[in-house]
Amino acid sequence: MKTGKTVKRYLHCLLGLLFTAAGIAVTGRAGLGLPPVFSVPNVLVTRLPALSLGTWVIAWGAVLIALQAALSGGLRAAQLVRLLRAVLLGWFVDLSGSLAALLPAEGYAARLALCLTGVVISGFGIALARRAVPAPFAGEALVTTLAARTGKKRDEMQMLFALGCICLAALLSMLFYGSAIVGTREGTILTALFTGPAADFFSSRFEDEPPLGKACREQN
Fold it and tell me: What pTM was computed for the model?
């Protein structure tokens, strides 16, 4: 019975990652920017399209994991789990992106609707993945470690981390395209504001297990 439950939990985690990636792909289809943590890959793929967005997501996830491992005193099994999730998420982003490309995105209203739809889909996916395997994503783990090292509140560090990702994406964009800001727009702000609350909303609706959103943010 325990084996069956374990398999079920990991299948739910895979499904959660698939929904998360689908939300990212739908948001990307809107062309209004991706969530802050993915804004750097979103800029890099415009300049170096030989690598897909999913591949850049994997590479960026590896960078975040390496930073968190360095700050927390070395590589642990938890970081390897996060790396595996980053790889799966990147694969699913490319898979979902090919399907999201078929969605109509004509007119600003339609693009804004796609962006907000992507937020809801990603929120559900994050909640499902957290519930199945209560471990933080790469960005969440780094934020928790940074908060512990600096003594700042986690919510404050989360905001600083998001701003840091946006600023880095803007800097890369200016290096690549001069004064133009590419890949970071109002959709980046909307996803930053609403993806977390959407994930917490869906987490609170899972009745058979307690919501794991806050618990997973507290882990390293």
Answer: 0.86
